[in-house]
Amino acid sequence: xxxxxxxxxxxxxxxxxxxxxxxxxxxxxxxxxxxxxxxxxxxxxxxxxxxxxxxxxxxxxxxxxxxxxxxxxxxxxxxxxxxxxxxxxxxxxxxxxxxxxxxxxxxxxxxxxxxxxxxxxxxxxxxxxxxxxxxxxxxxxxxxxxxxxxxxxxxxxxxxxxxxxxxxxxxxxxxxxxxxxxxxxxxxxxxxxxxxxxxxxxxxxxxxxxxxxxxxxxxxxxxxxxxxxxxxxxxxxxxxxxxxxxxxxxxxxxxxxxxxxxxxxxxxxxxxxxxxxxxxxxxxxxxxxxxxxxxxxxxxxxxx
Length: 304
Description:
Blueprint: H1 5-21, E1 28-29, H2 32-39, H3 43-55, E2 59-62, E3 65-68, H4 87-100, E4 109-111, H5 112-119, H6 123-133, E5 139-142, E6 146-149, H7 154-176, H8 183-200, H9 202-205, H10 209-223, H11 227-242, H12 251-270, H13 274-303
Antiparallel strand pairs: 1-3, 2-3, 4-6, 5-6
């Protein structure tokens, strides 16, 4: 029977945690109650996930608890890329499409009701999303259910990039310490192949680079197997890309530089060359900082 999207997503998160648990001196999963609280799902969902993991030979119930029998492989994960979206994901995707399409610029105001009508979601869902999204520091609440897109200055951008460097460097070091059978290595090989294919046909496919960028950085932070890095990285990564969306001047040249920096980084990572990988990531993040400062300055100037 086909598993629900929630079950599949929860399974994938738990499989990530099991990568580390399998290597520990106490390879047991927490209790169902603890897992339900930690992953913010019901105990029914956790029981369904656990039963499936047991059926697939990943865990075994013992008197001491649920023992992890082996490290998960890529084939154990669900492909949820095309799974049905929740209402929260619908409004998030719609809202980001407005930003990406240049329909919301710094200083623009919008209402919860407008977003609800345009996205097909109810106002409660829209409000909850906007409140959560406001932690990014890119929108602020106004009276009468109104919101406004905000700007950020150079100091904000510099502090953000500095924090991003701390996160990604730590994630990179942890990734390079993973065993050869960790599923992230295969994903990184596929990402490198995709980069090289785009490079061969860059004039026609250069607009694919931002998606490749997201895929690369997601693989690095996922390989770290740290839920807190994952949570903060999502916020930092989005804010860093926020101002790129509207600055089209020199876009093709920026993407060419980024593509080649990505390839250098991927080659170093896959060679397990720690020094080269760290250096390549430093070069790439320094470029990202310069780009962010240039884009934010230009966008804020036009919006003034």
